[in-house]
């Protein structure tokens, strides 16, 4: 409950308590105050009833017209109830004893019957309003049917009361005044209105939404006050015996107070609410306009100071917005570009295609798209004022306003970036060529050193051993010398073995003599014997009949892979499997080791993988490394066989021969 509502509720509660205490005093002095007669009682009664009828009629008009063609159930019930209550009140007023044509006690009975019907309708409706938990929409046709039905029932009840008043229990008798039936009916009304007042009070205290019911605005604090005043008024109406007693006037005065509270709770608030809403809406619109102005100024500042070019065109491809950066990029002024066609900044050969692309972009309904972001495809090209062309990286967005489509392009001149990219590509190509040259030179040097070791130094060691063999046959040699010569022979044998191993590591003779298949078989056996890791080679000789460059590169790749397995993988098993097609060779190297940790493959010191990558790139192939910690590593390599291999050494030699 809001603070304002709490204060209002306290004020109304105190007023109700004061009026109740005053009424208690009057009720306690009933015998005394009943002696006072009201002068012009009929006139006062008619005036007070007329005021009540007018108020109830206004409640009907507000509840009926609050929603137009679609009403809520609560507003429809209130409209029908107060319409019928105002009609019954009118007939109560005109049939009250003393009015022209209604002098008898039976006429007073008719008037009080109208009174009871009117007050029960209002009391029960207010009780239903406070008990209602869910409201629903009522269509225009059902609303009209309900009003017509209410009028018909009201007319029928009025006809019965006027024509057959004896159908209803007697409410007034000549000489004695109100009957016990009438008094009991008033007590029931007191109870109903007291219950309604209590429920309204409880609802106000425990609810945050106390001033509205659906779309119909209801001030529940005033309805609480109205129910309390109706309960007090009905008590007065149970005390009088004759129509001119003071209690009748006091009861009607409380009844008018209750009607005014209903007016304040239903009519005034619904008349005042649209104006309050309009004022608040006006304030909100002004605040929104101020905020939009601030946002516009901020957006204008961003556009004006942006380093990227920003350009907006309409559906006729006319430039309607351009920032200084865009004008500078194209070599124009902002004023020169505004209102011109976008074709002024597009090369002639691209204009038709560009218009078609923009139209298709708008037709697809896409809101934004990136253009010209691929360095290898600068299809977005700008035209400078001096006629030169330059590459552009841009994004385009589409927006529909007032059924017209606008396109905004944010772009930048990437001439310097393109030049840097091309220079970087050139450097990368040169580095690749250098790496390939170094690989070829190193392989040639290895081959040369291996040949020198095997042919020269190997022959010398073999000859030296033969000389030692001849020396061992000398019969005059002492036993000590013979032992020394034997030791020298073992050293020479070890040296020859070591020399052969070094020569084989540098350049396996099997690769030159038997081809790649036999070289890999030898490598497989030596790897298994040296490191104790089981290695399977799944291939056949026909698959591995290749030229010398590819054979050497593949041998080195597998050699490096096995070296990595021996050094890092801690594997128990390695598989090397080849598959060959007419135009490509694929092979897989897989181990069951501990795998490669994430990021380890990109370390700058991973020269093994770098060397493999460079060899594969020289053959225009590709490779993938799949590794998971604890589950081993799998290297997949694909090498085309129908593309030439760049060999700087051979190219240089060929040029020297020519």
UniProtKB/TrEMBL annotation:
Keyword Zinc tagged: no
Pfam families: HATPase_c (PF02518), HisKA_3 (PF07730), MASE3 (PF17159), PAS_9 (PF13426)
Alphabetically ordered keywords of this record: Coiled coil, Kinase, Membrane, Transferase, Transmembrane, Transmembrane helix, Two-component regulatory system
All residue ranges annotated as the PAS domain in the record: 295-365
Domain (Histidine kinase): residue spans on this chain: 448-643
Annotated transmembrane regions: 12-28, 40-64, 76-94, 114-133, 145-165, 181-201, 222-240
One GO CC term, this protein: membrane
Protein name: PAS domain S-box protein
Species in which this protein is naturally found: Undibacterium baiyunense
């Amino acid at each position: 409950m809001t603070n304002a509502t709490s204060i209002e509720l306290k004020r109304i509660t105190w007023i109700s308590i004061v009026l109740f205490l005053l009424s208690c005093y009057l009720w306690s002095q009933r015998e005394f105050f009943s002696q006072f007669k009201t002068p012009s009682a009929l006139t006062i009664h008619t005036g007070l009833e007329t005021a009540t009828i007018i108020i109830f009629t206004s409640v009907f008009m507000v509840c009926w017209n609050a929603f137009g063609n679609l009403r809520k159930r609560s507003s429809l019930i209130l409209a029908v109830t107060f319409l019928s209550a105002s009609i019954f009140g009118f007939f109560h007023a005109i049939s009250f004893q003393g009015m022209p044509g209604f002098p008898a006690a039976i006429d007073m009975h008719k008037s009080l019957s109208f009174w009871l019907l009117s007050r029960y309708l209002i009391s029960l409706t207010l009780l239903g309003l406070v008990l209602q938990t869910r409201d629903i929409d009522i269509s225009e046709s059902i609303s009209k049917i309900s009003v017509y039905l209410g009028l018909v029932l009201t007319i029928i009840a009025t006809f019965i009361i006027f024509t057959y008043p004896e159908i209803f229990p007697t409410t007034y008798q000549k000489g004695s005044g109100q009957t016990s039936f009438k008094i009991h009916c008033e007590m029931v009304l007191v109870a109903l209105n007291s219950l309604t007042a209590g429920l309204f009070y409880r609802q106000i205290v425990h609810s945050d939404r106390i001033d509205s019911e659906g779309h119909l605005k209801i001030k529940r604090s005033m309805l609480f006050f109205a129910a309390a005043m109706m309960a007090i008024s009905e008590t007065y109406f149970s005390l009088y015996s004759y129509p001119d007693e003071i209690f009748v006037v006091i009861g009607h005065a409380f009844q008018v107070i209750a009607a005014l509270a209903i007016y304040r709770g239903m009519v005034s608030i619904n008349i005042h609410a649209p104006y309050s809403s309009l004022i608040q809406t006006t304030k909100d619109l002004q605040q929104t306009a101020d905020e939009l102005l601030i946002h516009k100024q901020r957006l204008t500042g961003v556009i004006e100071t942006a380093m990227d070019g920003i350009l907006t065109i309409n559906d006729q491809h006319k430039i309607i917005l351009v920032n200084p950066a865009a004008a500078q990029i194209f070599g124009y002024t902002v004023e020169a570009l505004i209102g011109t066609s976008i074709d002024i900044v597009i090369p002639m050969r691209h204009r038709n295609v560009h218009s078609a692309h923009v139209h298709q972009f708008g037709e697809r309904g896409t809101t934004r798209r990136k253009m010209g972001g691929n360095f290898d495809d600068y299809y977005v090209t700008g035209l400078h004022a001096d006629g030169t062309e330059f590459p552009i990286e841009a994004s385009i967005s589409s927006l529909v306003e007032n059924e017209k489509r606008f396109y905004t392009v944010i772009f930048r001149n990437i001439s310097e970036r393109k030049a840097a990219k091309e220079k970087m590509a050139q450097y990368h190509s040169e580095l690749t060529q250098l790496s390939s040259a170094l690989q070829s030179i190193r392989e040639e040097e290895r081959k040369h050193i291996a040949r020198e070791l095997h042919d020269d130094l190997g022959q010398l060691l073999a000859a030296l051993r033969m000389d030692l063999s001849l020396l061992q046959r000398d019969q005059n040699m002492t036993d000590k010398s013979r032992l020394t010569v034997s030791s020298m022979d073992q050293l020479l044998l070890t040296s020859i073995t070591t020399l052969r191993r070094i020569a084989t590591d540098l350049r396996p003779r099997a690769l030159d003599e038997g081809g790649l298949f036999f070289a890999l078989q030898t490598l497989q056996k030596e790897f298994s014997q040296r490191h104790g890791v089981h290695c399977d080679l799944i291939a056949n000789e026909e698959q591995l009949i290749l030229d010398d460059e590819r054979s050497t590169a593949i041998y080195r790749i597998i050699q490096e892979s096995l070296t990595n397995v021996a050094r890092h993988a801690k594997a128990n098993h390695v598989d090397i499997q080849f598959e060959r097609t007419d135009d490509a060779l694929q092979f897989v190297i897989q181990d069951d080791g501990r795998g490669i940790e994430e990021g380890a493959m990109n370390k700058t010191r991973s020269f093994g993988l770098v060397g493999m990558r460079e060899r594969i790139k020289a053959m225009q192939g590709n490779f993938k490394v799949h590794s998971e910690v604890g589950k081993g590593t799998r290297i997949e390599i694909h090498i085309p066989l129908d593309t030439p291999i760049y060999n700087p050494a051979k190219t240089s030699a060929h040029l020297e021969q020519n």
